[in-house]
Design brief:
By secondary structure, the protein is of the alpha/beta class. Helices cover 41% and strands 16% of the residues. It contains 14 helices and 15 strands. Helix 2 packs antiparallel against helix 10. The relative contact order is 0.17.
């Protein structure tokens, strides 16, 4: 017997109809079917510190977190998050009321937007943007308003006049990502100061995705928006253990904000996962207390990998935007005689045995991102060396 379905309307909620299967699933499947090196999806191919992994094992064996942890997160982790924010940035948060543990940063973003938006509210996001931003805004009934980062002198920069012009009477929230995925841009103090002044002037909430806070290179500096005048009371800051400690599968993220903002986000979050990652929360609490030497070594390792892959891409003929943060490199394929990032990325596995991501998927204005392609360098050195070699000697 065939199941009966209504044809009166599509099965998928119309708010999600535009999204479909993510490009990451498509390209990862292509990597498997062709035996290609996957530099598309942003996850490391080695685990983080052994002592952190062992802390998770201890928690499992000791029966800590094997049952539901507290809804806001275990006290040890909330205390460690608050201490981390104070130690690094001078931001004071009450671990009992101003810190919320989430199932990764993706849930934190979803919960924040679901909690803080009403249907019809406008959200300004920096374009290109992490793909879940658009979906979460849609699920909340909001309207996304992209402000495009454009290439300028070797990096992608924000036009502050364009940002100001994008604000209307319907704007509820600014969604800011720095260090920025996929471009690798780190917003400067001047840029952040202007964003803060705009938020205060127009009485806007701000959600800041700062998951790459520990991955800034060269002279770049990560400055949490909440540290700027007038911003602590209107900013929801999102962090993640996955990107800082290379345990992306553990899905431990967090929110820090005022009691009122955290309460609002928690009201939405409790009906998403409720709780998650119990034993891993204990391990992340220990990870956040690692000495500064760990973070320095982590940055140095990723900087060396950035330079290795960037050099290989340049030798292969790409125009390379060397990132100031994250673990992604954006390239321009036009020097190769190409202009369609989708077609280029779909052909690249057969041509070179390497998978990348077309940046256009991160844009509302697809034409703006058409010639740009993103590569991840958070892989073993030998893998990056092989990828660079393959890119320089395509088979066709």
């Amino acid at each position: 017997m065939t199941a009966m379905t209504s044809t009166a309307r599509p099965l998928l909620n119309r708010r999600l109809a535009e999204f479909g299967t993510t490009i990451f699933a498509e390209m990862s499947a292509l990597a498997l079917s062709t035996g290609s090196i996957n530099l598309g999806q942003g996850f490391p191919d080695t685990d983080g510190p052994e002592e952190v992994r062992e802390a998770a094992v201890r928690a499992l064996r000791d029966g800590r977190g094997n049952q539901y942890p507290p809804g806001p997160g275990i006290p040890e982790l909330r205390t460690a998050i608050a201490a981390h924010q104070e130690r690094r940035y001078g931001l004071m948060y009450d671990p009992d009321t101003e810190v919320l543990v989430t199932a990764g940063a993706t849930e934190a973003i979803a919960a924040a937007l679901l909690a803080l938006l009403e249907p019809g509210d406008e959200v300004i996001a920096l374009e290109p943007y992490y793909d879940s931003y658009a979906a979460c805004i849609a699920m909340a009934g909001g309207t996304r308003v992209p402000v495009t980062l454009r290439p300028s002198e070797g990096s992608f920069r924000l036009d502050l006049d364009e940002l100001r012009d994008a604000v209307t009477d319907r704007t509820r929230l600014l969604l800011i990502n720095t260090p920025h995925n996929p471009t690798g841009t780190v917003l400067t103090r001047d840029e952040l100061t202007a964003i803060a002044a705009l938020a205060v002037e127009r009485d806007l909430l701000v959600v800041t995705d700062e998951v790459y806070e520990h991955l800034v290179f060269d002279k770049a500096e990560h400055i949490p928006l909440a540290t700027l005048p007038g911003m602590r009371d209107r900013t929801v800051t999102i962090g993640s253990a996955g990107k800082s400690f290379s345990f992306t599968g553990w899905k431990v993220g967090w929110v820090t904000a005022t009691r009122e903002l955290v309460s609002a986000v928690r009201s939405a979050k409790q009906f998403l996962t409720y709780v998650a990652s119990g034993p891993f929360q204990y391990a992340v609490a220990e990870a956040l207390r690692l000495p500064e030497a760990y973070f320095e070594e982590f940055r140095a390792d990723m900087r060396a990998k950035r330079d290795l892959l960037a050099g290989g891409l340049e030798q292969a003929g790409f125009k390379v935007f060397r990132p100031a943060g994250t673990y992604f490199i954006t390239t321009d394929i036009r020097p190769l005689g190409e202009s369609d990032g989708f077609a280029f990325c779909r052909a690249l596995p057969e041509r070179c045995g390497v998978v990348a991501i077309p940046n256009a998927v991160f844009y509302d204005h697809r034409e703006q991102g058409a010639p740009f392609v993103r590569f991840a360098f958070c892989k073993r050195t030998t893998v990056l060396e092989e990828a660079a070699s393959r890119l320089k000697t395509p088979t066709a």
